[in-house]
Predict the 3D structure of the following.
Amino acid sequence: MVCLSKRILGILLFFLLLLVSGCDSNGTGEYPFKNISFEDISNLQDEAYTYSVRNITFFIDSLRLSQHDSDYIDNACNKYYAERQPYLWVTRYGARLSCDTVLAWLKGIDTTGVKASRLYVKEIERQLTRLRQRNFDDAHTISEACATLEYYLTKAYLRYSSGQRFGFVNPHKVLNRIDHLEENDIKSPYKLLYDVPTETPNKQFVADAINHIETGNTDAFLKSVQPENEIYYLLSKKLNTPGNTPEQARILAINIERARWRMPVQEKNDVKILVNIPAQRLYAYDLRGDSSCEMKICFGSRKHKTPLLTSKLSHIELNPYWIIPQNIVKKEIAPYHTYDTAYFNRNRYKIIDKSTGEFLSPLDVDEGMLLSGKYRIRQDKGEDNSLGRMIFRFPNNFSIYMHDTNNKAAFFRSYRGASHGCIRLEKPFALARFLMGGKSEAYINRIQQSITYTEEELQENTSFTPLKTCFFDKNIRVYIQYYTCYPHAGEVDFYPDFYGYDKVVGNVLFKSN
């Protein structure tokens, strides 16, 4: 498509006059355009058909300034045009062929649970068709069509590539603005509920994306940003299988989005432990073979949500003491059980002076002392200890861990959100045996005896030395995650949204432009 300015029009008319004057005066070789008048080509100087860089820039500015963008990738698009960078999709000769390549990718976004309207698909198609059919008038000029196509296609291209590579929802922003540290104080800081090192777009990603437009290599770039998570493809396959209810389709779309969130490349693991809160289960996989271990869990209540995180398992501690976290002391012990010797004796709690290690009677410690942070409350080890006989430790920012429990009845409940954030294990010894697969049977038996014998039996059996700590000779990563639908044994299982995270993620994923 060639768009002519008034100057070019004048040159055209000049050559037409030359053709007229050069015709044979005797009438031979009759001039073929003698019936064409100026009015017949007057539309070529119409503003609607005049390509104007100034007008295109004006329309792009109008579009970007009318947006209420807050996402990094949208702001990057607006910044590009605010700095008067070169157009990426339109020239004075029309729209580049790469527009069709990108549009084909954008149209496929529906199959992954994201609405095509989020990527302006209909508007891009409309303006591309208008340009190619030269369908302009005073209300729809060529400059406006070029500007609209240019701006929305860049924005959609960056949104799509960033969304597929990093996710359309930033979990750090969304999930870490739900609960306040102080339950009844909206001015208090928010709790950290999502602590997974998740990648996000940056300047280099935007520069690479734009560079692939300029070099005409958009198809290769869009292939490179597709998710690598197998969960993403299995859930997408389920989404595009007939028979889903509207609610199931919504849940699948939200969990497909979770599968887009990527962590930086980590060291090679021998074993991985997946704790899925909505499934209320733990799954351990030996990545060097095909063995696995699975069990029920109890997890943090809605008031004390288990944070989502990843870490590396460090060791198992046998017959642990429980050092009661200060927030539990503050909210559940100090206000109600100060001076209550029966309560402390019943629970086998001891008050210890941190500076001297001295044990103090509950009668000698008032509420202010308990809240001062100078004293700790410790529960004696043993079968009745809240941590049970075994604890699996891994570094994290929350002082949470996986452990045995003295409340075995909790595993028979349909809803097992019962802890202050830790993961309670239905079969801790089975998990220990699985993780210690390379150890001798004698060593495994020693672990079992260490957590089975009572204190009295240990005192009587002086020839047996119980283990206190077990270390691993494998790299074992722990993933505490939140999937309300998940592929398992060839099917996709759906689970309750205990913490209400689906609604929070869905509000952002399904928002209109």
About this structure: Residues 53-169+208-219 form one domain.
